[in-house]
Specification:
The chain is α+β, with helices and mostly antiparallel strands. About 30% of the residues lie in helices and about 30% in strands. It is built from 12 helices and 25 strands. A 6-stranded antiparallel barrel has the order 1-2-3-6-5-4. Strands 7-8-9-12-11-10 form a 6-stranded antiparallel β-barrel. Strands 14, 15, 16, 17, 18 and 19 form a 6-stranded antiparallel beta sheet that branches. A hairpin with a 4-residue loop joins strand 5 and strand 6. Helix 5 packs across helix 6 (about 285-295). It starts with a helix and ends in a 5-residue tail after the last helix.
Length: about 450
């Protein structure tokens, strides 16, 4: 039979031990609590609310389908009657003060197409803001206010030092609830291939800190209150799945946004994949079986599915089924690695590629051109005309047998059954005018098209 006195002694001992542990932990918990309070007090004054008024262009059938697909991917109920156009739209987001001059970092999607931008500080002061620079490929933008006093500036951290499991603090204005602070952890690093419109360079920090609509553009901070990311996206219908752009990515491109208003990147002109993905699509049981068949020493590199007509790659002789292994002597680990290395170079740069073809390595010299931008191509090319363009370089002029003083833009690809194809436009054609207006560059082409082209006309 169980001794009730002995049991009582054990229960008393356990209770005393738990009480002692709670007392021992109390200073630790209080220290953590104080740290979170300090972070909120430190970061909140640097965070701003951004309201942007936008005029929305009418959507064509393809854009409507893309929007419906986007809703379905993120579990958002699709309205029975989706309007093709709203006269004006208000976007609300967050941002944080970058310097004393009034520059503010935010997401590009918060201010893209904005006609009027209002910035409200934590003090309640409201300023008009202008867009200084935008980069849709990373979803980063810089806007500016003209302050009439001193501004609190956010301290930037180093996102290369982030570790999974560390604390993460999101600050912003979700649902217009200004100065909201939420706490969580870094759940994962290097998230990519998310279904996010137009964001070409994805290397997201995943966090379970609560992020909601309106947090976009606000800071994700570490336990010291330093900004380690820019809150960008969530997965609708899921709990605690938020994503932020690493702050080091912003550090790389902000100088260009401040200086030129955009980011200049290079263009190779190839459709590429990772070797492992190609092996899987080919039905190989093991990646090693595929690499052996290709004569490759390993699964590193970027597999070329296609070289676009009259692109830098095509002009240099890059072919389908080539595997790009090195660029200027530096190993290419994957297709993403190649995109990053090419994009970091200056337009006009000549690079030496090490390529595997027919089980043998060879070197190819390529002269790169400027990347026109995926958003412009999608909106003004695929949706309206159905073509992709490149700058008309001296090499292209010579290759096409044109006169040296020819001005225009080069057609590098035409979508099947597009308006361009139906008009018998083919790769290699040169567009010299839009609506009787001469065009001598990609910028002039896009400007002329924006002024004259309307879907359906």
């Amino acid at each position: 039979m169980r001794n009730p006195i002995r049991s009582s002694v054990w229960f008393a001992a356990i209770a005393l031990a738990m009480a002692g542990a709670a007392q021992a932990m109390s200073p630790v918990l209080r220290e953590m609590e104080d740290a979170f309070i300090r972070i909120g007090e430190q970061v909140r004054p640097c965070v701003v609310n951004i309201d942007s008024e936008q005029t929305v262009e009418p959507m064509d059938d393809k854009q409507m389908q893309d929007l419906e697909e986007f809703f379905k991917n993120f579990g958002i109920p699709v309205p029975e009657q989706m309007p093709r156009r709203m006269p004006r739209a208000m976007a609300s987001g967050s941002g944080f003060i970058f310097d004393k001059e009034g520059h503010i970092l935010t997401n590009n999607h918060v201010v893209e197409g904005a006609k009027n931008i209002k910035v409200r500080l934590s003090t309640g002061k409201v300023y008009d803001a202008v867009v200084v620079g935008q980069d849709s490929d990373t979803d980063i933008a810089v806007i500016k206010i003209t302050p009439d006093g001193d501004l609190p500036v956010a301290e930037l951290g180093d996102s290369s030092q982030i570790r999974v499991g560390q604390f993460a603090i999101a600050v912003g204005n979700p649902r217009e609830l200004e100065g909201t602070v939420s706490f969580g952890h870094v759940s994962a690093l290097g998230r990519e291939s998310l279904r996010l419109p137009s964001i070409r360079f994805q290397n997201f920090i995943q966090t379970d800190a609560a992020i909601n609509l309106g947090n976009s553009g606000g800071p994700l901070c570490d336990i010291e209150g330093r900004v380690i990311g820019i809150n960008t996206a969530i997965v609708y219908g899921a709990d605690s799945l938020g994503f932020a752009i690493p702050i080091n990515m912003a550090k790389e491109i902000v100088p260009q946004l401040l200086e030129k208003g955009k980011v200049t990147r290079c263009f190779l002109g190839v459709d590429i994949s990772d070797i492992a993905d190609v092996a899987k699509q080919a039905g190989a049981e093991r990646v090693e079986d595929f690499t052996e068949l290709m004569g490759l020493p390993d699964a590193k590199g970027a597999y070329v599915g296609k070289a676009h007509p009259n692109s830098p790659a095509d002009r240099a002789g890059i072919k389908s089924e080539d595997v790009i292994r090195e660029i200027n002597g530096a190993p290419v680990e994957s297709s993403k690695d190649l995109v990053g290395k090419i994009s970091a170079l200056a337009p006009g740069a000549s690079v030496k590629l090490n390529v595997f073809r027919d089980k043998k390595p060879l070197e190819v010299d390529v002269q790169l051109t400027e990347y026109a931008g995926s958003v412009d191509k999608a909106r003004k090319g695929s949706d309206i005309l159905g073509l992709s363009l490149d700058a008309l370089t001296p090499q292209a002029i010579k290759q096409q047998g044109l006169e040296e003083n020819t001005k225009g833009v080069l057609v590098v690809d035409v979508l099947p059954d597009s308006p361009a194809e139906r008009c018998d436009i083919i790769p290699g054609d040169v567009i010299t005018e839009v609506a009787q207006q001469p065009v001598a560059s990609l910028e002039e082409f896009r400007s002329a098209l924006k002024s004259n082209a309307t879907p359906g006309k």
